[in-house]
């Protein structure tokens, strides 16, 4: 195919490319990115660059075109880009599993490498269901979670997303029927803690697991909640023989000011899902970690294997970059950088509190959120941010940012101005 002009590319895109959460054909014209470096996206139409306030859906924590990650990819590419994981193994996957075990909450000893965050949740659910079947308790097959959550777009993850007002409401009545409690309040409330305890006790005989996003609910609403609820869940699950799953796909690798959000409560789960920032945004990969209790339980069953094996499981290229990304993160003072961004967002977003239509402004770690009292005009808000030289992706009633950790102070301030402009226009 000959080189395309930007208008030609956009016309082909509109006719043939189905973008996420969009109609076919598309109704909004996307921006065409030519290249990316550091925290900047260079546009193909020659109009300049945009500071990326989204870390490409929260994954590119080191920014773009990073020399360390580039070298890891090049080096692995020269050895092998892929080899099947069934019956074979290789150093990048083994090293990655060891790195994840060493940095994760205590007790998570076993690592199942998956293709994406949503698939890692599917694997987590399968682990929990098979664990109880292996122990001769097949009735324990439902999941409990709180409203306002989001765990992915494949089947079981959709079933534990918020069934009312969420993006998967269309599938109500078709998805597996799970147990929901109310959304977690921001501050600790004993009455809500008691609701959690009572719900787990009431459904214990049929619950395989409780699954939640710890401390920060992501795409379900960007809400923050007290870490104390994680301790309540751990105690109630232990008391009533229910597994506890933490979905750290969005919160893992430092985003909230802890390596994993569970650390805010010093609570270890039985199963944990990670993804997004795992490869520093270079390629898709995720992982499901579990305790020896879970792995041994499955291994003692009538079917002693976890019957799941994606074609690209343990992909060497992705694993090598993931190892480099984790080592890069741990080899620097990442916490100081996240706290610096947090301070910059607090300062810069304070002005949004006085804007008409703004319901709340909240910041935690390298996460800044402006919640409106109405559905955001996505086109107007996005265009306002672009005029400020920033790329944002608002949704529902939210204008938010999750910048790369390498974002400098001036660019953090610029992102904050763009969020305020988007709130004003959206």
Automatic annotation (TrEMBL):
<feature type="binding site">
    <location>
        <position position="150"/>
    </location>
    <ligand>
        <name>substrate</name>
    </ligand>
</feature>
<keyword id="KW-0949">S-adenosyl-L-methionine</keyword>
<comment type="function">
    <text>Catalyzes the transfer of the alpha-amino group from S-adenosyl-L-methionine (SAM) to 7-keto-8-aminopelargonic acid (KAPA) to form 7,8-diaminopelargonic acid (DAPA). It is the only aminotransferase known to utilize SAM as an amino donor.</text>
</comment>
<keyword id="KW-0093">Biotin biosynthesis</keyword>
<dbReference type="InterPro" id="IPR015424">
    <property type="entry name" value="PyrdxlP-dep_Trfase"/>
</dbReference>
<keyword id="KW-0808">Transferase</keyword>
<keyword id="KW-0032">Aminotransferase</keyword>
<dbReference type="InterPro" id="IPR005814">
    <property type="entry name" value="Aminotrans_3"/>
</dbReference>
<comment type="similarity">
    <text>Belongs to the class-III pyridoxal-phosphate-dependent aminotransferase family. BioA subfamily.</text>
</comment>
<feature type="binding site">
    <location>
        <position position="309"/>
    </location>
    <ligand>
        <name>substrate</name>
    </ligand>
</feature>
<feature type="binding site">
    <location>
        <position position="276"/>
    </location>
    <ligand>
        <name>substrate</name>
    </ligand>
</feature>
<dbReference type="InterPro" id="IPR005815">
    <property type="entry name" value="BioA"/>
</dbReference>
<feature type="site" description="Participates in the substrate recognition with KAPA and in a stacking interaction with the adenine ring of SAM">
    <location>
        <position position="21"/>
    </location>
</feature>
<feature type="binding site">
    <location>
        <position position="247"/>
    </location>
    <ligand>
        <name>pyridoxal 5'-phosphate</name>
    </ligand>
</feature>
<dbReference type="InterPro" id="IPR015421">
    <property type="entry name" value="PyrdxlP-dep_Trfase_major"/>
</dbReference>
<dbReference type="InterPro" id="IPR015422">
    <property type="entry name" value="PyrdxlP-dep_Trfase_small"/>
</dbReference>
<feature type="binding site">
    <location>
        <position position="57"/>
    </location>
    <ligand>
        <name>substrate</name>
    </ligand>
</feature>
<feature type="binding site">
    <location>
        <position position="393"/>
    </location>
    <ligand>
        <name>substrate</name>
    </ligand>
</feature>
<keyword id="KW-0663">Pyridoxal phosphate</keyword>
<dbReference type="Pfam" id="PF00202">
    <property type="entry name" value="Aminotran_3"/>
</dbReference>
<protein>
    <recommendedName>
        <fullName>Adenosylmethionine-8-amino-7-oxononanoate aminotransferase</fullName>
        <ecNumber>2.6.1.62</ecNumber>
    </recommendedName>
</protein>
<dbReference type="InterPro" id="IPR049704">
    <property type="entry name" value="Aminotrans_3_PPA_site"/>
</dbReference>
<comment type="subunit">
    <text>Homodimer.</text>
</comment>
<feature type="binding site">
    <location>
        <begin position="117"/>
        <end position="118"/>
    </location>
    <ligand>
        <name>pyridoxal 5'-phosphate</name>
    </ligand>
</feature>
<comment type="pathway">
    <text>Cofactor biosynthesis; biotin biosynthesis; 7,8-diaminononanoate from 8-amino-7-oxononanoate (SAM route): step 1/1.</text>
</comment>
<feature type="modified residue" description="N6-(pyridoxal phosphate)lysine">
    <location>
        <position position="276"/>
    </location>
</feature>
<keyword id="KW-0963">Cytoplasm</keyword>
<feature type="binding site">
    <location>
        <begin position="310"/>
        <end position="311"/>
    </location>
    <ligand>
        <name>pyridoxal 5'-phosphate</name>
    </ligand>
</feature>
